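Late entry, written up from scratch paper. The run itself happened at the end of the previous shift, but nothing got recorded in the book at the time, so transcribing now.
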Amino acid sequence: MREVSIGQYYPAESFTHKLDARIKLLLTIAFIVMVFLVQSLYAYIAVAAFILIATLVSKIPILKVLKSVKAIIFIVIVMAIINLFTNREGTVLWSWWKVVITVEGIVTAVKLALRLIFLVMGTALLTYTTTPMALTDGMESLMYPLSLIKVPTHDIAIIMSIALRFIPILMEEVDKIMMAQKARGACFDRGGLLKRAKALLPVLIPLFVSAFRRADELALALDARCYNATPNRTKYKQPRLTWRDLVATIFTAVFIVLVIAINNNFWGLY
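Output as recorded:
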């Protein structure tokens, strides 16, 4: 539970930390689109190199970024197994009754697992290098055109930021509740799947109570500070684009073009 990276900020003095939040959000979206379009294994290697370079530039420990995958490792394994046994096209390696394993099935399962891992690692870099307040301001700025048609962009941005920030807090609360239940004799790691699911019921009820309590305290704190009392709120720090944002944009654009070229075998390498 403590290794959940979503919503956590890793303070450091790096090139990536000093980038504008709007640029980081747009580059993250471009990275996600690129990962979904990649099909070649060589292109996946290029994407892995891109994440490695971005991690080194951000001065974030590589192990910390890799640990962000632990939260979805079960989903990755399940999805890979499903694709492994449902893909029946191509060269058959092993078959028994209705179970068939093919070369294409293995390749598809590996690609899907890598895609999910890269998506989590890319978004983890965004939250590690951007404060929740900067994310809120960045999302609000990018959604500014919607405010012209009376969409409450600031409220939407602050809701998304609070939800993102509450994820590690609730995970820590789950860890505390489970430790307290174990101290009272509860067991969460024995028995079948149904028995383990029933054992989690004593955890869910206190978690919901704690979540509503924290939400109520946050609402009272915002109200006590006259939050949203004025229609046009000002910002203490005005976001400004710098040369770093231009360099990051050009580097990411060049890398995306390179990955697309490798994916389409532009140079006839394979």
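Residues 1-130+240-270 form one domain.
(Scratch paper discarded after transcription.)
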